[in-house]
């Protein structure tokens, strides 16, 4: 198959029910999840095979799509399909414990790992951008963003506020694609959110989708509403229309009792942050015509914004950068103390990574939401002591609309994931679930990613850019019995900046699947524990000792 060979876009939807279209559930699962990634309910631009994250694709081109579909349909249980950046390149004889699919996406040799070189090769049809879960066929829609944001705020609640955000106010800005998950994630943690957004249309859209409760008339009204809710211990999210570079300093000046401050404006791109003194209507024109002048003004404004965030920190609030580079831009704009507050990974996520925690997810191949409801109940029964997990599972059941095959995500750690997986496999065997489920995760996990600007920022031993870990992770999952395993480059933060791996394992109800699940779902998060033991984290050392993770040189 040549990469240029023709293939026409067509609507794709995964098969449902418990009748096989491939030779076994192991391959049926890969086929359904591959197709599910391109379901119009799931994919952003299915005709271009783009699933999410800018240009993250599920297959290189439509000819590759047809060939992968064909091969998975025919593949036997002692064969393995090889996928090179979205193109099927070979089928090899292996054995029943081997993965049915091995995937490598977007990888380039170090000195060549730049966007221009990647784009050159992409335009020649030689590679494909796989993001994290687009090219590895385990994307489940926006539930992942909401859950990740929920988990971050739950971690803050545990760290500072006794496990719940009840009676606290979180001040943030930006209600866009990612940022729009903040108000719901905060109210799910029982807190009060005050969200500053310059674009009223964005704020109102969030009310329509029930991610945001109210839009205030003005700042006085907003402050009244959030203070009343805080005193009553009532969860509430309120947006105020305004420019964060003005509103955040004004709230500091007024001495409003804010407990947590962060930001999710698009600060990483100065042309996407509206400087004060420029009207919403003039934004795109000004940015297009005078990008340098606009950038200077945006950085000046971000300096004021971050200066006020530092002021809140000095006043005792919990303040953090939510992965949008606002500290760096503010520093460029003259805010000397911009890096006085931490990024969210070192502050809240890393302690969870030390326990092997990460975004565990599963999807019901039946297509029946009742199967996910049954697994939700199983999770609640398995981990009754985990309060924030229970809150998430209950609220997700009520408020998350499924996209494509019904799926669930929640964060589980070392010693927990395999219990869930084994239970799901038993439920398939007993008929409690109407068809098998797949169990996978995001590549953004405790032991599966090297990404110095995000997941591995500021590692204790300075090992931020060491990329042996994701490679070991992929090999461990291959050796442990995962159903498909992937190694990607450039997901999340872009080409040249990350290397990461993923696995998906099928619970088809057989004893063999149970064996594989118990190894994969132990060893995969185990990589997170040993990665953090090796970097010198005491929390990880304690987890390894308590839960029996063997580390030769702790
Ligand atoms: P987006 O562009 O969809 O939304 C940004 C919002 O900020 C827009 O609604 C815009 O109107 C608003 N805004 C811009 N300037 C403003 C100002 N001065 N005052 C108030 N509001 C203003 O972006 P998004 O997808 O929501 O992402 C937000 C940021 O989070 C990005 O920088 C992104 O890179 C970052 N991000 C973080 C993570 C993470 O791991 N935490 C993951 C992905 C993205």
From TrEMBL:
Cofactor(s) it depends on: NAD(+)
Positions that bind NAD(+): 53-54, 131, 177-179, 197, 202, 243-244, 264-268, 273-274, 322, 492
This protein's record includes keyword Cytoplasm: yes
Gene3D superfamilies: Urocanase like domains (3.40.50.10730), Urocanase superfamily (3.40.1770.10)
Active site: 410
Pathway this chain belongs to: Amino-acid degradation; L-histidine degradation into L-glutamate; N-formimidoyl-L-glutamate from L-histidine: step 2/3
Annotated InterPro entries: Urocanase, Urocanase-like, Urocanase_C, Urocanase_central_sf, Urocanase_CS, Urocanase_N, Urocanase_Rossmann-like, Urocanase_sf
Domain Urocanase C-terminal: 351-545
Pfam families attached to this UniProt entry: Urocanase (PF01175), Urocanase_C (PF17392), Urocanase_N (PF17391)
Keyword terms of this UniProt record: Cytoplasm, Histidine metabolism, Lyase, NAD
Catalytic activity, reaction form: 4-imidazolone-5-propanoate = trans-urocanate + H2O
PROSITE patterns recorded: UROCANASE
Gene Ontology molecular function terms on file: urocanate hydratase activity
Domain Urocanase N-terminal: 12-138
Function: Catalyzes the conversion of urocanate to 4-imidazolone-5-propionate.
Similarity section: Belongs to the urocanase family.
Protein name per its UniProtKB record: Urocanate hydratase
Organism field: Actinophytocola glycyrrhizae
């Amino acid at each position: 198959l040549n990469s240029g060979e023709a293939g026409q876009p067509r609507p794709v939807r995964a098969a449902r029910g418990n009748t096989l279209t491939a030779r076994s559930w192991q391959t049926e699962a890969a086929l359904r999840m591959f197709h599910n990634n391109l379901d119009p309910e799931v994919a952003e631009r299915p005709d271009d095979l783009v699933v999410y994250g800018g240009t993250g694709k599920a297959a290189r081109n439509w000819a590759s799509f047809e060939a992968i579909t064909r091969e998975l349909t025919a593949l036997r249980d002692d064969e393995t399909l090889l996928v090179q950046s979205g193109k099927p390149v070979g089928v090899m004889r292996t054995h029943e414990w081997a993965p049915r699919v091995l995937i490598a996406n977007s990888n380039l040799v170090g000195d060549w790992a730049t966007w221009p070189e990647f784009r050159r090769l992409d335009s020649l049809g030689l590679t494909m951008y796989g993001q994290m879960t687009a090219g590895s066929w385990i994307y489940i829609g926006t539930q992942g963003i909401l859950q990740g944001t929920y988990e971050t705020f739950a971690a803050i609640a545990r760290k500072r506020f006794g496990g719940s955000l009840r009676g606290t106010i979180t001040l943030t800005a930006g209600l866009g694609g990612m940022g729009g998950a903040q108000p719901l994630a905060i109210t799910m943690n029982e807190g009060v959110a005050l969200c500053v957004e310059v674009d009223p249309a964005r704020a109102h859209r969030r009310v329509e989708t029930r991610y945001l409760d109210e839009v205030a008339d003005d700042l006085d009204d907003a402050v009244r509403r959030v203070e009343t809710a805080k005193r009553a211990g009532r969860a509430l999210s309120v947006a105020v229309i305004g420019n964060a570079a003005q509103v955040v300093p004004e709230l500091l000046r007024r001495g409003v009792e804010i407990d947590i401050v962060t930001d999710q404006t698009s600060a990483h791109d100065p042309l996407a942050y509206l400087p004060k003194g420029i009207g919403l209507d003039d934004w795109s024109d000004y940015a297009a015509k005078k990008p340098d002048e606009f950038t200077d003004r945006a950085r000046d404004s971000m300096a004021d914004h971050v200066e006020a965030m530092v002021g809140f920190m000095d006043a005792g609030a919990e303040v953090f950068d939510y992965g949008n580079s606002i500290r760096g831009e503010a520093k460029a704009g003259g805010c000397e103390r911009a890096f006085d507050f931490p990024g969210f990974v070192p502050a809240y996520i890393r302690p969870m990574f030390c326990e092997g925690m990460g975004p565990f997810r599963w999807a019901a191949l039946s297509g029946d939401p009742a199967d996910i409801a049954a697994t939700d109940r199983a999770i609640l029964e398995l981990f009754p002591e985990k309060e924030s997990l229970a809150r998430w599972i209950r609220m997700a059941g009520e408020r998350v609309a499924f996209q494509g095959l019904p799926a669930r995500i929640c964060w589980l750690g070392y010693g927990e994931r395999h219990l869930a997986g084994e239970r799901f496999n038993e439920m398939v065997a007993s008929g409690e679930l109407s068809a098998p489920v797949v169990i996978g995760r995001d590549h953004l996990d405790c032991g599966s990613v090297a990404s110095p600007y995000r997941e591995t920022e500021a590692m204790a031993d300075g090992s931020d850019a060491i990329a042996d870990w994701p490679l070991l992770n992929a090999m461990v999952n291959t050796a442990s019995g995962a159903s498909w395993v992937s190694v990607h480059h450039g997901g999340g933060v872009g080409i040249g900046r990350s290397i990461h791996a993923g696995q998906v394992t099928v619970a088809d109800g057989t004893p063999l699947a149970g064996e594989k699940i118990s190894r994969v779902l132990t060893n995969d998060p185990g990589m997170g524990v040993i990665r953090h033991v090796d970097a010198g984290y005491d929390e990880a050392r304690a987890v390894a000792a308590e839960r029996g993770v063997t580390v030769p040189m702790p």
